[in-house]
Amino acid sequence: MSSLRRVFAFLAPMVVLSAVGSATAQSLPTATTITLAPTPVTHSIMRTGFRLNTQINYADCMGDDILKFSVVLTGRQSFILQAWAGSNCDQPANRTTVNSNLCWKLYEAIPDSSSTNPNNPIVEIHVRDLLAGKTLYGAQTGSTDTGGTGGTSAGGSGGTAGTDTGGTAGTGGTLDAGGSAGTTSAGGTGGTTTTTLPTGTLIHGSGQEACIDNTAVFAATPITVYFMLVDGNAQLQGSAVKWEGKYKLIAPPPPENVTAKIGDGLLPIHFNYPNNQSPDMTVNGYRLYCDPPPGGGAADAGVSPVPTDAGPVIPNCDGDTQFMDGDRVDEKFTCGSANSSTTTEANATGLVNGVSYRVGVAATDNFENVGKVSLLSCQVPQPVDGFFKAYREAGGKGGGGFCSFSTRREPLPLFMLLGLASCLVVRRRRAA
Amino acid sequence: MRRFVPILTLALVGICRVAAAQGVDEFGAYGSTPREHRESPQYAAAEIRFGRYIPAVDSSVSGTPFKDTFGDSSRYMVGLEGDWQLVRIPHLGTLGPGLGWGYTRATGYAHLTANPSQLSGEQTALSVMPFYLVGVLRADVLARDFHIPLVPYAKLGFGYALWWASDGGQTSRADGAVGHGSSYGPQYALGGMFLLDELDPQTARDADNSIGINNSYIFGEWYRSELDGFGSKTRMNVGANTWVLGLAIEF
After folding, report:
1. What is the mean pLDDT of residues B206-210?
2. Which helix or strand (DSSP H or E) is residue A73 part of?
3. Which of A384, A397, A413 sits opposite B112 (nearest CB)?
4. What is the DSSP string of B6-55?
5. Best CA proximity match to A379, nearest among A352, A397, A405, A403
6. How confident is the model at residue A9 (pLDDT cuts 50, 70, 90)?
7. pLDDT of residue B11
8. Which of A171, A193, A323, A368 is a Cys-bridge partner for A327, taking CB atoms 3.0 to 4.6 Å apart?
9. Any chain A CB within 8 A of the CB of B235?
10. CATH domain B41-250 topology
11. Under an 8 A CB cutoff, do A261 and B113 touch?
């Protein structure tokens, strides 16, 4: 009996411990994780070109494209889902320290448990808000001032884009990483207004001014968005997940030395850069703009094609202009393009002979930015005689297609083909 | 020319003597000719071709539209040819079919209709892409039997060319006809090849042993193609009477 007691005394605690352990295992929460879906982002503005989903351009910003991120959560409990942009935003100090100037908050919400799929929320981030931290709040230097003699931003990290309305153009600030947001301006008679990055404040509703990049650097800039779950004390739960994109708001400068020559219903346009090298290494082509626009533009103006015997026509571009050099030109004026960064000529097409056209060239880049138009050249398309026309006028009857063939006039090739086929058949039979 | 003939003769004799020199020393045989090593089988020849090419367009019409548009400067063609050496005729050479391709393009600026003496800025072009099927006889008896590194050859066959004209980058049109078509006709050629193996026999043997190239040559060729549809009035004559230089290998 005593031995039975001993066995029971030994087993009882074991059973109790086992039960406790089991209960503990059942109550352990699922680990908190956050990931991005395989196709993490879609855009509110439909993309029809070749750009990657990670590339943001000036038109995206001006149209206030919305990036829609598909996030996958586990063990979210009642944690807060946040999205930050900047550098090392998974480090608490970069999100909370005043004037750290490194991270800006773009999204904050507790996933709605009543929604269809609370563990797969869609995080919407406006491109302007995403870029505002860089363009408005100090992650870049320079100013949009129209005045200030020698205005220099001197104040630590990323002297900010300010607005100045007086005096002459300043030199802008210099890029400075680390330290606090630049808040002073020295040397300018007009002074520089600066804006401090609103640490911890949700950036929302940024305007078109967020699309102005004052760095004057013709290059793409990386930008990183961090998605994370945090508790009520802003402590990170699990790990953050990153999405890495690039933006380029500054389009390539236009080429120079734009000259238009005469063609038949077209104008061959020649252009180049000084030293045959654009300062923007992302240039991937050119777009031609014509005023009046191709197609109905001239017809709308009551202009008819000039007859071939009308004699040379002198270009005359004195009249109302629909765009000027340095403008960003409406797409309806597009009259040609070239898809090579190294080309120095392209044809403006769809034009009417006898009409004087102003033609300019804008460069495009691999972010599908379209730059401002060059100085304009004036020319008139006129009838020309190319080789084939000259050949036909000289009595030549060739042409009409690669496969044009007359069995009545050209029996010899048919006989040759038949003869060759016959020889092959005979040879095969002999071989067999 | 009179000076050139004896110099060429001496050069050839010299090469032949060098090629024929051989002997044995304490290290073994030396100076053996390429023919004495066990050569890999030889089935075909390939050529890379380059030469002047002026299409005979103006010969088939009343005016000179080609010359007027593109000028009279030389135009050139690049091409490739592959020959199947189907038959070896002892003490003569090889005979077999050859298939060739070439490409040339002439460009210029169109004249203003209202003032033909003035050029516009619009580019006009004629592109020609000839193909041909010829029988090729390469008489390598001199090289094989007499160690004279020359191989005369002849080709005879049928040529077919595609051509297309463009203005301002677009296919030309005139009188309701689109500016592209095809032409065909007989083609023949005579040429001579210089056997490069004799200049460096060891490298030649290595090429044969390692990648199966039996012989390599430089060659010059006169050829004529009458690509006018056998005199048809509805075909543009894009043939030429011209010369070609190139490199050839047999393998």
Report:
1. 92
2. strand A66-74
3. A384
4. HHHHHHHHHHHHHHH--EEETTEEES--GGGS-PPP--EEEEEEEEE---
5. A352
6. low
7. 47
8. A323
9. yes
10. Porin (2.40.160)
11. no
Does the structure show a pLDDT above 80 at A77? yes
Size of chain A, expressed as the number of residues it contains: 432
Closest CA to A350 of A288, A280, A409: A288
pTM for the complete prediction? 0.71
Closest CA to B68 of B103, B119, B104: B119
Nearest CA among B249, B125, B237, B246 for reference residue B187: B237
Ramachandran region of residue B212, left (φ > 0), alpha (ψ -120 to 50) or beta?
left
Name every chain B residue with its beta carbon within 8 A of the beta carbon of A401.
178, 180-181
Domain ranges of chain B: 1-35, 41-250
Q: Which amino acid, residue A407?
A: T
pLDDT at residue B57 above 50?
Answer: yes
Partner-chain residue, chosen from B122, B172, B233, that has the shortest CB–CB distance to A266: B122
Burial class (CB in 10 A: 0-12, 13-18, 19+), B10: exposed
The interface predicted TM-score of the complex, written ipTM, equals 0.84
Owner of token pair 């804008």: A362
Residue A96 pLDDT grade (very low, low, confident, very high; cuts 50, 70, 90) = confident
- Chain B residues close to A394, C-beta within 8 Å: 61-65
The per-residue pLDDT for A140 is 46
CA distances (Å), A325 to each of A237, A298, A320, A341, A376, in order? 54, 21, 14, 21, 6
Q: Which pLDDT does position B94 carry in this prediction? A: 96
Q: Is B210 touching A (CB cutoff 8 A)?
A: no
Cβ of A398 within 8 Å of Cβ of B236? The answer is: yes
Q: How far is A401 from chain B (nearest CA, A)?
A: 5
pLDDT of A314 strictly over 90: no
A267-297 tens-digit pLDDT: 999 999 998 888 999 999 999 999 999 976 5
Q: Residue for token digits 């036909």?
A: A392
In angstroms, the CA B66 to CA B34 distance is: 49
- B133 at the A interface (CB within 8 A)? no
* B182 vs A contacts (CB less than 8 Å): 402-404
The residues, any chain, with a CB within 8 Å of residue A146's CB and separated by 6 or more, are A164, A165, A166, A169
Nearest to A406 among B116, B183, B234 (CB): B234
Q: Show the beta-strand stretches assigned E in chain B.
A: 23-25, 28-30, 44-52, 76-84, 87-89, 93-112, 119-138, 150-167, 170-171, 173-174, 177-178, 180-195, 215-225, 240-250
